[in-house]
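In the laboratory, one determines a bound structure by crystallizing the protein with its ligand and collecting diffraction data. In a computational setting the workflow is compressed into a single prediction: the sequence and the ligand go in, and a structural description comes out. We illustrate the idea with guanosine-5'-monophosphate.
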Amino acid sequence: MSPQKQVSHSHKLIVISAPSGAGKTTLCHRLLADFPKLLLSISTTSRKPRGQEKNEIDYNFVSPEVFKKMIDNHEFAEWALVHGNYYGTSMNVIQSAFDKDRAVLLDIDVQGAESLRKAFPKETFSVFISPPSLEILEERLRNRKTDEEASIQRRIENARTEMKAAPFFQKIVINDNLETAYQELKRLVLEELNS
Ligand code: 5GP
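The predicted complex, in structure-token form:
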């Protein structure tokens, strides 16, 4: 007799979106440390690696031509043009996580979050991380010293648009204080994984 299958965190997509500089990457890394069963979805992008980023660890870095071929081959569960570059979630990543009964953590933009809510309405749990204000966001982007001025300006402009998408998310966490924001996010994820 085969043992009864354990009830697990299967078929859950925990989607985290935020304007860049809102602290999303740090918050996602802390979630992964606290929830070892969460599988991080590594996205594919046509943008160039930044700083210490490594291929297949931070992103699968591909050329715009390869990315477009992947779109044509229907390899993405969702994809979007963000800050002038292509980003996408591979269907394989989601499928293999579901096969392993692992919940997936996705750090994607607001367009991607909307696409996943449509494609996987039952599985998607979306959280928007909001900076306290656009001024504070700009200050944070400058302090991290990884982006060119033009890129900072473009990110601020995009942030204005992205903030308008916040009401479509199931939950909003304001990152005023990183620790408080993390504790709130952790509570929400725990609740979702146990539901
Ligand atoms: P960055 O270039 O700063 O790493 O990411 C820029 C934006 O692209 C971030 O908002 C990030 O969440 C988003 N992003 C990363 N991967 C994906 C993806 O697979 N799909 C979508 N739609 N957005 C993504």
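The radius of gyration is 17 Å. Keep in mind that any predicted model is a hypothesis to be tested, not a measurement.
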